[in-house]
Design goal:
The protein has 376 residues and is α/β, with parallel strands linked by helices. The protein has ten helices and 18 strands.
Length: 376
């Protein structure tokens, strides 16, 4: 919790559940990544938090943007971003979205299949394109490997075909998974994709860019490597494979930029001990999986939780949301412990929830209003 957020909560005591996010922390995180990887262009992953206040601050910092939909493209343009700094990075796009983005000046698009490449050739002629490669996501708390990316062999053919279709085969990309907790994952992925990059270059394809994706983590309950450890691993691998002839480098951080800039303030609705012989209490909050905490699925992302009673005696808990859906359980197996004095009406804070929370919030499931947002 930053001092600005603490002051806001103390002075305004907004109704819960709500997100409070410190825009200055967003800038600090952006600058930290810029310092750690000075040779890489930073394309902020808009999907992490597309709030106008976030986008406008990043525009002022000369950030680039990774958009996953035509709506995110529009949000970036509305925030003042130039079309030239926007990449349409989703490999699954409607033809109408490709056409609209290209008409508005966006000139860089991702793909990982022949059909998508053909759509790009038809609706964004002459655009720069880059192919996403399937890589392992081991070490990621929120893996992305099954839905996106193609094989090395298929990518080789597709990049050749891109030029034949009148597109500019600009580069290759990969993603090691969201909330990646190991630096080794980048080294392995760079080695895999660099080999294809070299093969295509030697075959006469004018590749210029390597997109390393996102994945840089935010600290939740457990410690994670610092950003300079990731940058050291990345630059060591890049120089090992490319020497001094480094290609243009792109990174697409989302969680790292906004994750620890915000918190969710929530209210305890009920504390229930279902069995007098079971020490586990069930703690129900006024926000759950459908209110924005979707990344607790499978107990993948484990948020730190603070309470007014911290420092007092603790006991084991299961934590759930307020809806009537049985799937609305946040944590049951992750050994959460909260104060024994916790009771209905207490306010609690879920820390580092600035990323992938507001964008996951449902629209009035069970009648609950979407998560309120405050940017300070």
């Amino acid at each position: 919790m930053t001092p600005k957020i603490a002051r806001f909560l103390a002075h305004h005591q907004p109704a819960t559940p709500c997100l409070v996010l410190d825009i200055d922390r967003v800038e600090q995180n952006f600058r930290a990544l810029q310092y750690a990887l000075p040779l890489a262009r930073i394309y902020y992953a808009v999907k992490a938090n597309p709030a106008p206040q976030v986008l406008e601050r990043l525009v002022g910092l000369s950030s680039y943007f990774d958009a996953a939909s035509i709506e995110e493209v529009t949000a970036c343009l509305d925030a003042g971003a130039a079309p030239a700094v926007i990449s349409f990075g989703n490999t699954i796009k409607k033809a109408s979205s490709i056409r609209k983005a290209h008409q508005r000046g966006v000139a860089m698009f991702a793909f990982d299949s022949r059909e998508e490449l053909e759509k790009l050739a038809r609706y964004a002629p002459g655009a720069r394109v880059y192919c996403r490669i399937l890589v392992e996501n081991e070490g990621a708390d929120w893996p992305l490997s099954r839905k996106f990316g193609t094989t090395i062999d298929n990518a080789r053919d597709l990049m050749v075909q891109a030029g034949d279709l009148g597109l500019d085969p600009y580069g290759l990309s990969f993603h090691v998974g969201s909330q990646q907790t190991t630096t080794h994952a980048y080294q392995v992925a760079i080695g895999k994709v660099a080999t294809l990059f070299t093969d295509l270059t030697e075959a006469g394809i004018d590749l210029r860019m390597m997109n390393l994706g996102g994945g840089f983590p935010t600290r939740y309950r457990d410690d994670v490597p610092e950003i300079d450890q990731f940058s050291h691993a990345i630059m060591t691998a890049m120089t090992d494979h490319f020497g001094n002839a480094l290609p243009e480098m792109v990174v697409e951080p989302g969680r790292f930029i906004v994750g620890d800039a915000g918190l969710v303030s929530a209210e305890v609705v009920l504390v229930s001990q279902r069995d007098r012989n079971d020490p586990v209490r069930w703690v129900y909050l006024d926000i759950g999986r459908f209110g924005g905490l979707a990344e607790t699925e499978g107990e993948s992302i484990k948020y730190r939780i603070t309470t007014p009673h911290d420092g007092s005696s603790m006991g084991p808990v299961a934590i759930a949301g307020p809806t009537c859906d049985g799937a609305d359980i946040l944590y049951e197996k992750s050994n959460y412990r909260l104060p024994l004095s916790l009771t209905s009406g207490d306010r609690v804070e879920l820390l580092s929830t600035g990323a992938y929370v507001t964008t996951y919030a449902s629209t009035k499931f069970n009648g609950f209003a979407p998560l309120a947002e405050y940017y300070v």
